[in-house]
Each structure stands twice: as C-alpha cells, then as structure tokens.
C-alpha cells in the first residue's frame, strides 16, 4: 500500500491536469448526479484532490479519507477555496479504516475501487462503517460485459497499472455484492464501463456482512 501511496503523492501534482479532458467532458456531470444523493454524515473513500467537494448538498457533514498525503494537500486547498467548514480530511487506508462500526449515513466512492489493492477488503470496510439502512454511492469504471468494449481497456490496463496502480478491468459491481451490499440501482453512464451504483446495507445487519432482507 505504501508504494501505491507514493505513486499518488508524485502524481498529485499533475492529477487534475491529467484528468481535465474527461472531467470537462463527462466526469463533472457524473459527479454532480452521484453526490446529489448524499445525506447526513458522509464518508468519502479516496477523496483524492477533492473533486467531489463542490457537488455535495450543503446540509451534509463530510469526512474524506485518502492514503496519499499529496492528494489530501490538494483536497485541503480546494476545501479552503470553497470555504467549506463541514468537511474533515483524514489520512487513512480504505482497507483498514479507523472508524467505529455503523458510523456513517452515506458512503461515497468515485473512481476509487479500481485502485484499492484488495477491493473486497476495502468494500467490506465500507460496509462495516455504514449504518444499517444506510446508502452507498459508487461511481466507478469497470470491466464491460461487452468483449468489444473491453479491447481498449485491455490496451490501457498495463499503462494505468504502471502509472498509478489502477486496473481498468475490475468487476466492481460483483465485488460490491460480494462485500455484502444490496444493490438497489445501476445506471450505465458511459456504456457499461462507467456505472453509478446505489447500494444499501440491509437494516437488519449490525454485526456482519451477510445479506438480510430490509425490514
């Protein structure tokens, strides 16, 4: 994990510039759509440079974590520029969170679980800290169901792995289910490569990740 964090520390200097074409063309629109659904006490996993901060509803309390000091420095600068007092930023590993069980009303992840080294472990941690009945909002890119659409992903995968440790071929929707979440809605935003996934932690589940019916 330390090696991946160092890659992002270095990359943080040009990260926003690197992603700016996709951000202007599509990602900012996707973020606005996803973040409008956040409520209450929110955990953002992998907050990065804070690109989501402008899109949160004004009445939420946000705790943002990231494993990269460089990325958090950029996020803190953005927080100050936006004048946000309801945002707290913490250096923390998504795979080993330091929060109590059932702490957050909403968990948010945008383009993160393509990078977490052990995605199932990270997703189970997200599940653990979400309150029963709480909502998880995942805006993620992942492997397509189409072999044709996967061709460019296979081409890009070794480049992105080397650059920042990102896999273009994760089956994130299946991983979310494996972690115990109940998926309520899936919206394909860019074919089925970029998906907005809304999931819940069943309200009867306080101690483990076994799926139980919502009461």
| Main sheet summary | 7 strands, mixed
Q: Structural class given helices, strands, pairing?
A: alpha/beta
CATH class categorisation: Alpha Beta
What is the strand arrangement across the widest sheet? 3-2-1-4-5-7-6
Q: How many domains is the backbone divided into?
A: 1
What is Rg? 16 Å
CATH hierarchy: architecture:
3-Layer(aba) Sandwich
Total strands: the figure is 7
- What portion of residues belong to β-strands? 15-25%
End-to-end C-alpha gap: 38 Å
Instruction: Give, in order, the helices and strands.
Output: HHEEHEEHEHHEE
User: Helical content, roughly?
Assistant: 25-40%
Inertia-based shape: globular
- How large is the count of helical segments? 6
The CATH superfamily is identified as: Vaccinia Virus protein VP39
Which topology does CATH recognise? Rossmann fold
| Overall residue-averaged pLDDT value | 90
Low-confidence stretches: 208-215
GO biological process, one term: methylation
Organism: Palaeococcus pacificus DY20341
InterPro entries: Methyltransf_11, SAM-dependent_MTases_sf, Thiol_S-MT
GO molecular function: S-adenosylmethionine-dependent methyltransferase activity
